[in-house]
Amino acid sequence: MEAVIRIEKLTKRYKETQAVKDLSLTVRKGEIYGFIGLNGSGKTTTLRMLLGMIKPTRGSCFLLEEKVKLSNYKLWEKVGYMVETPYAYPELTVKENLELIRKLRLIQDTRAVDHTISELQLTPYANRKAKHLSLGNAQRLGLAKALLHQPEILILDEPVNGLDPAGIVEVRELLRNLAKNKGVTIFLSSHLLSEVALIADKIGIIHHGRLIEEFEADRLESLIERKLLIGTRQNEAAAKALASQGIACRIGERGFLEISGKDMLEKPETVSGILVNNGFSLIHISVEEESLEAYFLRSIRKESGEP
Ligand SMILES: Nc1ncnc2c1ncn2[C@@H]1O[C@H](COP(=O)(O)OP(=O)(O)OP(=O)(O)O)[C@@H](O)[C@H]1O
């Protein structure tokens, strides 16, 4: 499938700081790419280079197979973006702000403003001055500006920042609908893996400016670690009984026996059978799943060589 966004060996250095290093990735048509990293990991710098706002030290970005250049006006007609805090004219209403953008972008269709206002569920606030909007609605206005000209590509920095849970769901549905039904290609950054996991098709983790991991979002399920937690009244003796049957376990921080490994997770009855046959009664058995955030941090620790 066509690579709509292509980043090749992108590097940005600010004097002492290596903000982005040798970063390459591609995003195909209609795909949502979630770009995640801790604060200061290089997300915004990458997005700004992708939008031609800053010049890479090395490497290149391509949108729709055209090399990114600020002066390529034809290309920017096909791209919508929201980078960092969305800016709006504070004294103008939501509708006036969008009307201004419509005229600046030479969008002929006069219905575009009302259509986008309703798409972003901003109708109740259409006549409210931007300076009186909540953080969540200011974020929606930022998204409305990015979407007004119905772009083929959307580049969004932390698009659900400041939204309440219902707002997050709405924006998630909107972005998924744009990608699936209108073929819009979306590149979005976030520092929250759990949120990105629900929106994105593909996820890339950036750390210290480098892409340290990339996977299809539906693989996340298999990447997340799970543990079987077992409680008995004599955990140390129970651990020995299991070890004598070739089942490795450790006593975790919460005082449960912890067993990892796919085999045992799929057959907890094998473990419980051994314990019961050896005279141990079970007072707890459960499967614990690593949180998405824990996976994210584990992956970063692995990259940094930490245990
Ligand atoms: N104009 C600049 N001059 C010097 N250093 C910069 C500049 N812009 C960014 N940096 C540095 O580059 C690194 C990456 O910053 P960047 O803003 O891209 O990270 P980020 O992942 O977007 O972080 P956040 O989630 O906090 O926005 C940081 O160490 C930052 O301090």
TrEMBL record:
SUPFAM superfamilies, per the entry: P-loop containing nucleoside triphosphate hydrolases
PROSITE patterns assigned to the protein according to its UniProt record, in alphabetical order: ABC_TRANSPORTER_1, ABC_TRANSPORTER_2
A GO term for molecular function: ATP binding
Keywords per UniProt: ATP-binding, Nucleotide-binding, Transport
InterPro entries: AAA+_ATPase, ABC_transporter-like_ATP-bd, ABC_transporter-like_CS, P-loop_NTPase
Gene3D superfamilies given in the database record: P-loop containing nucleotide triphosphate hydrolases
Cited Pfam families: ABC_tran
Domain ABC transporter: 5-233
Family: Belongs to the ABC transporter superfamily.
PANTHER family, alphabetized: ABC TRANSPORTER, ATP-BINDING PROTEIN
Annotated protein name in UniProt: ABC transporter ATP-binding protein
Originating species: Planococcus dechangensis
